[in-house]
Amino acid sequence: MRFVAHLNLPKNIEAYYQETGRAGRDGLPANAWMAYGLQDVITLRQFMQDSDAPDLIKRVEHHKLDAMLGLCESIHCRRHALLAYFDEDSAQKCGNCDNCLNPPENFDATEIAQKALSCVYRTEQRFGVNYLIDVLIGSDDERIKNNQHEKLSTYGIGAELTATQWRGIFRQLIAMGYLDIDITRYGALRLTEKCRAVLRGEQKLLLRKQQAKQTLSKKDKKQAAVRPQDQALWEALRQLRADIAKQNGVPPFVIFHDTTLQEMCLARPQDMQAMARISGIGTQKLERYGQQFLDIVQQHPLSELLNNGLRDTVNQTLILHEQGLKPEQIAKQRELKVSTVYSHLSDGIEAGLLDVTKVLDLEDSQINEIISTIESLGDEADSLKAIFQALDEAYDYGVIRCVVASIY
Predict the structure, then answer these.
(1) Does pTM top 0.85 for this prediction?
(2) N or C: which end of the chain has fewer CB atoms below 10 A?
């Protein structure tokens, strides 16, 4: 399975971790995607409240849901958050979750949070998110007038934000425990003890800045469908197609569709029989253009190292490694941490594509020392931190990760 999608919020991290784990079990790259909203939180808490479970079990379930919300709204590496939940840790970011690939921007939301929290207080903690937003942005709503809330000091003080932006603020305040949802009052928000410091101005509060929706151009989408190790071949095939199309006075897609060229990149046919098996190449096109495209493919051989199903970011590192760059040089060129580069190289080692002795600038005796330490730790060797400490912190976590990958 290459993709797991959650269209609502799992009730705890254990469930989320198990369900996302169904993707990529064959070791190939996979994606996990989740969408959730405040209604999911209200629904789950309603289920918990209405259950016949003892109060202790309900409290545990509520804490687990809070942890799940914290994971969703985290601005840090999500793998770190997952490991921390299961009482583990890692010295390096995963380099693969959305927060690592596209670090979210945060901002000082102290004043905005004070407005939101004050509005909850001024309306006597009796209303849900939508109503509170209407008060904050100063909506001309009959219900607000009936409650005389247009006379409140918080009426209209949040007009600088849109309703969508306010919804994101409230979602984060709930996830971080500054607000709670009162299920017995149909989802009304109430203040928690934690919010006092923010309201008094004693605590600075940073929240995630909502990103504007980005759409990929057709060119970007096509580019994203091509692996890093196939880029040179992809461009050469497109150039040949453009030249043939120009000679014949037709659009390029009449010669071959992009999907056909992408399949050539993946399959790398080495003869006409293999070329004939590429989708989109019929008998006539094979006779007209097959040999020309086959020649281009053969001019771009793929090394054994790069003929893999690893993630694109790993292959970008492997390409530079194959060119002879050291981990520190790769990190500088790719603007990554050295530990992240070592993590990519460890993936190559684990896949049997790289020799750890060729990757690490260590003596055989040093590598053997690390291996001996790992073996002596037994079950504790599952923790990189335990290995790191047992080696008196003499070796980088990334180096240790590479040696571990060579063993298992």
Answers:
(1) no
(2) C
